[in-house]
């Protein structure tokens, strides 16, 4: 307490409520997302994996690379 400088304290809500709300948008959105997913998990709903769309896009590309004429070795990847 003796090291505190009360002159450095800023007034609460000196710029209005807008900065408080804009700062809370992202954390509240994340909290809502966690709440929904948690509720679905508790209810026993099977949630699809987010990897499925990525696999649909990148798996054919990987297969094309593996079938190519050039030989891919571990040394060539480094």
End-to-end separation: 57 Å
Q: How does the helix and strand content classify structurally? A: mainly alpha
Strand fraction:
under 5%
If you compute it from the alpha carbons, what radius of gyration comes out, rounded to the nearest whole angstrom?
Answer: 26 Å
Per DSSP E runs of 2 or more residues, the count of β-strands stands at 0
What's the total helix number? 3
Quick structural summary:
By secondary structure, the protein is mainly α.
Task: Give an account of the 3D structure.
Helices cover 60% and strands 0% of the residues. The protein is an all-alpha fold.
Write the layout of secondary structure elements.
Layout lengths: L17 H26 L7 H17 L6 H4 L1
Label this structure with key terms.
78 residues, elongated, mainly alpha, single chain
């Amino acid at each position: 307490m003796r090291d505190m400088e009360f002159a450095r304290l800023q007034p609460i809500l000196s710029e209005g409520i807008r900065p408080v709300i804009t700062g809370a948008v992202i954390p509240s959105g994340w909290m809502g997302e966690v709440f929904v997913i948690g509720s679905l998990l508790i209810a026993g709903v099977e949630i699809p994996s987010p990897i499925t769309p990525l696999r649909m896009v990148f798996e054919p590309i990987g297969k094309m690379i593996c079938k190519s004429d050039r030989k891919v070795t571990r040394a060539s990847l480094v």
